[in-house]
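Incident review: delayed structure delivery

Summary: a single-chain prediction request sat in the queue longer than the usual turnaround. Root cause was a stuck worker, restarted by the on-call engineer. No data loss occurred. The affected request and its eventual output are reproduced below so the record is complete for anyone auditing the incident later.

Affected input:
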Amino acid sequence: MNYFIEVIVPLSLPKTFTYRVSESEFDFIKKGMRIAVPFGKSKIYTALVIDLHQTPPTLYEAREIDQILDEKPIVNELQINHWFWIASYYMCNIGDVYRGALPSALLLESETIISQNKDSFVDENELANDEFLIYEALQHQSSLKVQDIVDILNKKTVLPVIQKLLSKNIISLQEEIQEEYKPKLIRYIRLHENYLAEEKLIALLDSLRSDKQKNVVLQYFQLQATDKKPISVKQITELSSAAVVKGLIEKGIFEEYFIQEDRVNFDKNKIENELSLSDAQNEAFVEIKKTFEDKEVTLLHGVTSSGKTEIYTKLIEDYIAKGKQVLYLLPEIALTTQLVSRLTAHFGNKVAVFHSKYSNNERVEVWNNVNQNSEAAQIVIGARSALFLPFSNLGLIIVDEEHEQTFKQQDPAPRYHARDAAIVLANAHQAKVLLGSATPSIETYYNASSGKFGLVSLTERFGKVQMPEIELVDLKDSYFRKKMKGHFSLKLIEEITEAFANGEQVILFQNRRGFSPVLECMTCGHVPQCPQCDVSLTYHKYKNQLRCHYCGYSMAKPTNCHVCSSVDLETKGFGTEQIEMELAELFPKKNIKRMDQDTTRGKYSFEKIIDGFKNREIDVLVGTQMLAKGLDFDNVSLVGIMNADNMLYHPDFRAFERSFQMMTQVAGRSGRAEKRGKVIIQTYNPLHNIIQQVTNNDYEGMYKEQLYERKIYYYPPFYRVIRLTLKHRDFEKLKEGSMWLYQVLQQNLAIPVLGPEEPAIGRIRNEYIRTIMVKIPGDASLQGTKKTIQKILNSFDLVSQYRAIKVTVNVDFY
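Output delivered after worker restart:
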């Protein structure tokens, strides 16, 4: 009888594949195990078993597997079903979801190993220089990887050289799979059993001639008496030297042994304290529990600094007491720093953290802990990727700052929205979802207002602190009256000076990094452009270079114009770097730090900046939207928004909503303790509706106005939107192909299809771009429309002249 397994391969392919297994393998393998399988001519991939059956494939001959990699499943069925839902809803391949879900250390890929054929005769004189270098390297080591050969020859194209050596039968290739994850082992010592009896121990101490060795044995007993825990080699060597300890191990007095340990441990953070809620918080907490009785999802709409985190903590306590797992999703890695210290102080080592700044091994440990339902991962805090962890007993998902656009994955596929995917995941686990925000997204607030979600409001700040006072500065008027110093109005400088006099801290917000977005020649008007994208290069003064923020291209800042050779070059516009430098000139004695993508690249860079600011070592923090997320600093009395207008005029249907959210969130960082905070908004347009709504903290007004516009122009929440993006290096071919696709979509869909449109930035990385938008009304079949779009895309791939055009589908792209 034949036995088969159905697997997903970590490649961008829409279907699963069937492999042959023996009867004993069939009995051992379970769904959710990883299997190394041959794929293509000579590659080996880590596939995931999703089914076992006895039906042979009809279109191809099933191949045998290479090896079984797991002893028990590392993925559960609820996860697999959730992945298939993501693939179906977001119109992407199941292989993409699998690849995006697993930590890369669990996705082994074959690496080509090159070794010398021992039985072949080699005439060294007949070898070309490059061939000889590889042959010589193989005399010194048994095998090489392709990357090693690239390093030896110092060139990228090494495959032709390898091919020549293969044809001469000098080398052979083999595919080898490597397990990347290595458990962390800690080295411990214990006294050999021969010396455990008291008389033997006394005889041992008498026989030791070295005082140092005697001291180490005595210190070992002291540590054992006080700690009553295994003694690590590190503990002992801190009290003496490694050489002495090594000598005692060699003599057989001490034995060494190893214990596997998690790389991240929060036990030492735990502080025993009882969490007490204010009356308003307690009311909200009771109301949330009540809405959970008949609603799966509840929105907590609480103003900034209303103490939403304490309510979350209290809810987590309840679910942990029931033995459930809790997932806490955050939009930004920067936020995990503060939240982890708050939650670990309360829950100790029950908290695990999962995001991309953690190393591969640390992520695998969290994955394994969640899979085993271990106590060390009862609460998981993470960015959107934490959604893919193997939960088996999920009780609650908290999505904090649910309005944030970073919850939406843009590239690569799967282009999912973590908030929406979390609601579907919770439904599968019969868990509850709490969405929290001071400025909810219009779709969420619409669902809550219409009764689909529960709604709980928290309208006062914690400790009855007043909302910050917001003051507008008209930049047009200030420039006209010469009341400006650089990009700072005199009013803002006055307020900063006053804050410093009171020993308080300041946050300044400018949503652009770099020194300035444009460098212009004042003689001929030339602006240096990126050679691969249709954007001007941003000037970064700190590194003295011009850089493209889309493809990473950079060049040294020119001393004269590339067109007319004039030396009269001037910067236009300003970013965080320029604000930082102007501030340093205005307040030379103050410690000013910048928090943007350029300063937070390292693993602990967020922690350093946030801790420094919290400990009041930093006086002013200048930053981009990272500052707008829910950070909590009690000594900030002033927030300055340097230019409110550059957010308002984006060609995007959400520009006004996003501007309101961003400004309200940044303003909310001010005055979070006893004293009322102040916010200065610099703008050229103080009478703009959105700016007025921010000033009056009028979320309802903004919501109603935007909802009315969305209804008229067919946008969410009334219509679902799918965006198709087409890319190709040939402008004419792209134009032709996008027109063909648009016409076929329009003929087959009786709903609005817009395009093909050239986006604001029409070329990135030398590829021209066109977009097509499909708007699906609430009463139309979403699944049926997607199937039609998929069929049309499949037929588009079959048209030979358009096959090279890349098409990406983004469902709910906003």
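Verification: The longest helix spans residues 731-748.
Action items: add queue-age alerting; document worker restart procedure.
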